[in-house]
Amino acid sequence: MPALPIHRFCGRDGASLAYRELGEGRTVVLIHGFLSTATVQWILPGHAAAVAAQGRRVVMPDLRGHGDSARPHDAAAYPSDVVTDDAFALIEQLGLTDYDLGGYSLGGRTTVRMLVRGATPGRAIVAGMGLNGVARTARRERGDAFRRVVANFGTIEPGSPGWEAQAFMQRIGADPVALGHILGQSLDTPPEALARITTPTLVAMGADDDPADAEALATALPHSRCEIVPGDHVTAASAPQLGAAITAFLTTTAPPRR
Prior knowledge:
Structural class: alpha/beta
Largest sheet: 8 strands, mixed
């Protein structure tokens, strides 16, 4: 597939942020995870094409600090929940009122934050993220590991913990300063807030990631179901079974109208 053109939208603070889109029809906004990009998360594995082939328009932003979006080094550009603010800005600037929404890892957490803050998609996908990941963000081991990588970027020796993440960041031209700031903007979402979400939601996670935590999140969300796909946190993101699960959830039957 040829590279998709970059489109621009403005964050609430005026930051120039990027998105790509594929297909035509009802819009689904898909948000990538930490360290990734729209291209790496959704386009290269074929997930976006699978959804678009079912008559959908797939909109995929690059998060602030990632990909082709602005990567400011000033900590003030990363207030609490800023990636959620940016996602709301995208929805508003595209004029979306009847749409679906989802994400992987940080993108899944951002989807949850949007739901508790009043977003009204027809359906939602929270992939690569469980209850601990949304309710106790500051105490996640994965977050600590990422902090060590960005703090020691460029000095991690092959075979050492974090070396694969460092190599991936170097391969895609990631900015460790911007990514370090992103790690500090996440907010916890307590279970009582999850219980108020009425959007039908697919929770998906790799079998070698933390499926029990995904099941716990699905239990906390009143209108959800959980699907376990092959892979760990990294490999499940590109597993064809994940794309198939998302596509089936979005397209098997018409989403409820609000």
